Amino acid sequence: MQVASMHFKARAGGKLADVKLQAALKKLQGNFVRGRAERVAELDNFEAIREAGAAIRERALVHLDLYLEAFERNATARGAVVHWAETAAEANRLVCELAARYGVRKAAKSKSMVSEECGLNEALEAAGVEVVETDLGEYILQLAQEPPSHIVAPVVHKSKDEVSDLFEEKHRQPRKTGIAELTREAREMLRPHFLSADMGISGANFIVAETGSTLIVTNEGNGRMVTTLPRVHVAITGIEKVVPTLEDVSTLLRLLPRHGTGQTITNYVSITTGVRSEDELEGPGHFHVILVDAGRTRLIGSDLQPMLRCIRCGACMNHCPVYQSVGGHAYGWVYPGPMGSILTPMYAGLENALDLPNASTFCNQCGVVCPVKIPLPDLMRKLRERQFEQRLKPWSERLGLRMWGWIAQRPALYAMSARIGARLLAWMGGAGKLIHNLPFGGGWTNGRDFPAPQGKTFRELYAAGKAVMSDE
Amino acid sequence: MVPHIIHHSSIIVQIVRIGLFVTCLVDLIRPHIGFAALKLLEAAGCEVVVPQRQTCCGQPGYNSGDRKSALALARKVLAEFETCDYVVAPSGSCAGMIRTHYPDLFSDQPAELERAKRLCDRTYELTDFLVNVGKLERVPGTFNGEVTYHDSCSGLRELGVKSQPRSLLAKVPGLKLKEMDEAEICCGFGGAFALKFGEISTHIADRKCDNIAAAGVDAVVLGDLGCMLNIEGRLRRRGDMKTKVLHIAEVLAGDSEG
Ligand code: SF4
Predict the structure, then answer these.
(1) What is the pLDDT of residues B37-69, one digit of tens each?
(2) Does residue A470 carry a pLDDT above 60?
(3) Run of H or E including B67
(4) Residue B4 binned pLDDT confidence (cut-offs 50, 70, 90)
(5) Which ipTM score applies to this complex?
(6) How many CB atoms lie within 10 A of CB A48?
(7) Is the pLDDT of residue B14 over 80?
(8) Which of A146, A398, A444, B137 is most buried (CB neighbours < 10 A)?
(9) What is the C-alpha to C-alpha distance for residues A31 and A260, in angstroms, rounded to an integer?
């Protein structure tokens, strides 16, 4: 997917005024935020599970090479073929080659954020393969030709009415308005594709080292069809998704749906291990796993490694006041919200997403809710440090910060500047004691007044008070 | 660090020496919050010193990626405050900076790290200190009306300041606390964020103002000047000239008319 993250601020402005989007985002908060809180409250040892989840993910990363090798060994032993892709382009090339090898004309896909990262659909289409997204949300987006705006609820930005209009136009059927009817219509459209697809493409929420399995959690059942009906199954995912054992997966599954959708468990948890054996009736004859790096190894061993613990639950964005205000599209790439503000600069280049690490109030709501305890604000701060060091911040900001630091280290100069500043701002506030327009502070005063200072600084008044006391 | 002990005939009185970290915003914009804090600490029986050379805790630089300036200022704070028994700030944000982020800032300065950690352990947000260390029983202030409390992010999520301000407000004669919706959600300030992403910041502040308006109270009370300026600034721009925006120190000290 093209990276448009440089335009965060410009895009965000439009999103704030988008009434429909704002209503959709409110709903998301209601459902997912409340849902998570309720599901978490049901667990009496929640913090212990969270601690265990974080430790499992951390262990997988510390011994990433070992677990990936074990995964490859065990998957291969069961008839799967494991491919390694260093870049997104390589991943696309591998899938296109497989499509050519097996004479694939149509591929049915269940949701995969890594394939969005790679732009796999475009690559396959360019190679003459028809691609059908079968996750309801992704299907809607494919019809509308829009990117996802949330990693769990990709179509959250669209209202039901918009979907009704879209289906009417694209399906050429009488307009439906109920959610159940709309879903049924999409089902009817998708069914023939499942049956006629030559290749099923899925992502993986986890890959399990001890069994060589890939695992997906879904609510619609499409994932199960995609992984079992077509003769070829390709699972494409990031190398960091490896988890040592099935036991570990069960711990993580206690966290993922609770934090993602506010469910205790998703409707389907599908574990795919190897190809169809002779005594089995279902399953693909060919199973390929594409393990994508695309920037991940750069994080290993760095101070940003904790980011790779991410299990893609979406809780950080659901709880983020900035995401709640602007939605996912403003972030300009596959991953929005706090996790995206770290992943996008890391995967797509720090210089291509300058706003993102700064687009946070550091309220730390994300860090508090993250089920694998990723200190998201701390990681954003580290990116800000890199921006500062690499001179990727505007010179005026760098100068301002250095000046502040310099003056604040010189108490006499600082006291004098504060005296002048306090008087000047107090004067600007006038009788109403409010400044309506701050020169160089339009960011503030375009939408807010600035309450004016009292006029004298604390240190002046305190020194004066002391003088009075010593006179007495 | 042993508090110094004054022998007074046969009674031994322990006087705790507090370093008041005024914070740069209070110094510049609302000095009377500093005096209110002073009054409350003295009401709790503490001796308060105000190191005169103090300026800033270093947070603006730290959160903007200028680690070097932040470290220099942290060193300055360390030198000025380490002889105090406790450091108290009328701000969860600045106390949080010292307490939860100085160890990171000094992480590759082994000689100073230990000193910094000792300072962290003794650094408190004002209400946290008054309740848990100062054990303040009676507060000087009175207030006639209903207020709601906004939980500032750093105080709440870095320092666990939640029940402390509420238990102190409960001691104020005449004051009735009415919780608003989403009290724990950020007001949108975020330091430089408020300037850089003014529109988003204002949008978030609006949500806070909606919740304050829905609570229908006389005042919103909070513990951080940054949030105060943001919330007050947005309320006034929306045309609400009535709802007061007060720092908890002002309310507790009985100094809320400014
Ligand atoms: S960073 Fe944490 S909260 Fe955000 S999606 Fe990943 S696991 Fe979930």
Answers:
(1) 999 999 999 999 999 999 999 999 999 999 999
(2) no
(3) helix B67-81
(4) low
(5) 0.95
(6) 10
(7) no
(8) A444
(9) 10
* Number of continuous H segments (helices) and E segments (strands) in chain B: 15, 10
Residue among A98, A131, A151, A174 at smallest CA distance from A339:
A151
Helix axes B67-81, A395-408, angle to 10 degrees: 10
Beta-ladder partners of B145: B175
CA of A368 to the centre of ligand 1 (A): 10
Give a yes or no: residue B107 inside a domain: yes
Q: How confident is the model at residue B7 (pLDDT cuts 50, 70, 90)?
A: low
Bridge pairing between strands A242-243 and A206-208: parallel
Q: Quick one: B159 and B105 in the same domain?
A: no
Give the count of domains, chain B.
2
Same-domain status, B168 and B122? no
Residues B211, B147 share a domain: yes
Paired tokens of A460: 């002046």
Q: What residues in B contact A321, CB-CB < 8 Å?
A: 185-186, 188, 204, 207
- On whether both B27 and B79 belong to a single domain, the answer is yes
Domain co-membership, B115 together with B155: no
Residue type at B48 in one-letter notation:
V
- Greatest extent of chain A over all pairs of C-alpha atoms, in Å: 101
Q: Which structural domain, as residue segments, surrounds residue B91?
A: 4-131
pLDDT of A471 > 70? The answer is no
| Domains defined for chain A, CATH in brackets | 43-292 (3.40.50.10420), 395-471 (no CATH)
Q: Is pLDDT of A143 > 60?
A: yes
> What distances in angstroms separate CA A400 from CA A408, B23, B60, one per listed residue?
12, 19, 10
SS3 B21: coil
Give A271-337 as a DSSP string.
EE-SSPPTT-SSS-SEEEEEEE-TTHHHHTTSTTGGGGG-----HHHHT-HHHHHH-SGGG-SS--H
Q: How far is A358 from chain B (nearest CA, A)?
A: 7
Residues B107 and B42 grouped into a single domain: yes
Q: Is the pLDDT of residue A122 over 80?
A: yes
| pTM confidence score | 0.95
Q: Which of B105, B81, B72, B21 is nearest to A408 (CA)?
A: B72
Q: Best substitution site from A335, A341, A372, A379 to test ligand 1's pocket, by max atoms within 8 Å of Cβ?
A: A372
Residue A57 to residue A195: CA distance in whole angstroms = 37
User: Rounded mean pLDDT of chain A?
Assistant: 95
Same domain membership, residue B127 and residue B145? no
Structure tokens of A73? Answer: 């060994």
pLDDT at A400: 92
Q: Is residue B237 part of a domain?
A: yes
Q: Which of A229, A332, A351 is nearest to A15 (CA)?
A: A332
- Among A256, A311, A379, the mutation site with the greatest number of ligand 1 atoms within 8 A of its Cβ is A311
Contact across the interface for B66 and A405, Cβ inside 8 Å: yes
Residue A472 has pLDDT above 70, yes or no: no
* Residue nearest to ligand 1 atom 6, measured at CA: A310
A430 class by beta-carbon count within 10 Å (0-12 exposed, 13-18 middle, 19+ buried): exposed
The answer to the question of residue B176 being in a domain is: yes
Q: What's the pLDDT at A5? A: 87
Which CATH number goes with the domain that contains B124?
3.40.50
Domain boundary residue, one of B104, B131, B158: B131
Residue A75 has pLDDT above 70, yes or no: yes
- Both structure tokens of A229: 């009906």
**Contact yes or no for B66 and A422 at CB 8 A:** no
- Structural domain includes residue B258: no
Same-domain status, B245 and B172: yes
**Distance between CA atoms of residues A385 and B222, nearest Å:** 30
Q: Where among B102, B131, B160 does a domain terminate?
A: B131
pLDDT tens digits, residue range A226-246?
999 999 999 999 999 999 999
